[in-house]
Amino acid sequence: MEGYLLDWANLLLRWLHVIVAIAWIGSSFYFVWLDNSLQAPKDAELKEKGVGGELWAVHGGGFYNPQKYLGAPRHLPDDLHWFYWESYSTWLSGFGLFSVLYLFNPKVFLIDPNVANLTPTVAVILALAFLVVGWLVYDVLCRALQKKEGLLAVLVVAYVVIASWAACNLFSGRAAFLIIGAMIATIMSANVFFWIIPGQRKVVAAMKAGQPVDPIHGQRAKQRSVHNTYFTLPVLFAMLSNHYNMTYSHQYNWLVLVLIMVAGVLIRQFFILRHKGVVNVVYPIVAVALLAAVAAWIAPSRPAAAVAGAAAPAVDVAQVKQVTDKHCIQCHAAAPTLMPSPAKGMMFDQPEQIKAHAQQIYQQVVLQKAMPLGNMTNMTEDERALIGRWFEAGAK
Asked: I need a surface site. Which of 135, 149, 335, 385 has the fewest CB within 10 A?
């Protein structure tokens, strides 16, 4: 029953996280598009009111005319919509999901003894430190280089590269990718919480008090908002990466993570420029080439032992079961010891079950070497080769 309830918590938190993330990313992308698509008003009355840009659009059978004021309007409406619950809900639901899956199971998901011999307590503290320190360092850089955007961008990229390298040398690859994504997502949500919304509140308060509006609040909010839109696609990849172990199981997984995130930034840049009426195909071409190069670089090759399998002794399922009994049934059994329920619903208690999942076992254990998770049970190369020979011979 405990495993069943945890599965429901996982499902509902993941569902909630995706829903609110769509709302946050959707509104963020919309306003970036809107901001870059506005045109100077031709109506003298709009200019007199302080409108700096407007846009006419049609959607769902209706016509819309959004307008953006230079600074702030002279009079605030009674009903003013604020965009912040999407950000906060996304972070809270994501942190809840991260806690249920990773922080409550550090030995299984955070720690890889072949990377760093951490205790569960130290692993959890370090994972949380990445979120906190990630925001603090980024915020200090932004404060110190408020008017030096070029240098700031270089240092933020360098910081993410260093953090990626550090995470991949402390945690299991799967956890490292997710932690970097969570670190950047924390920066994004903290930008909203500490800068964007407080700045907007100060503008509203000044207007209600009849005081002049300091433009610095809008400038700071704009800077953090622009940063957030570039962070979005790298974060999305990092959050999805745990389903694709060919990325995080590579020897140089930190570089794989960085290169794919760079591709995401280039793709986002193309769309930002496109919103401004500039079509620069160099960015998507470079991004696609970068992704293709990474895919070719990390493509699995048949192990030498498997290639030479024809000359090696034949292997039967009983021998394979000895390996799975030693390394796999902790998670893949009717009553696993490390999981509340069989991982991915796969059980290797019986030879028939092993044969039924021969393809997945070969891919995960032999080709990608992603399993056992974190290689906690220290499966040897000879044992992987044995499974490879069994599968190559027809998985008899």
From this structure: 335
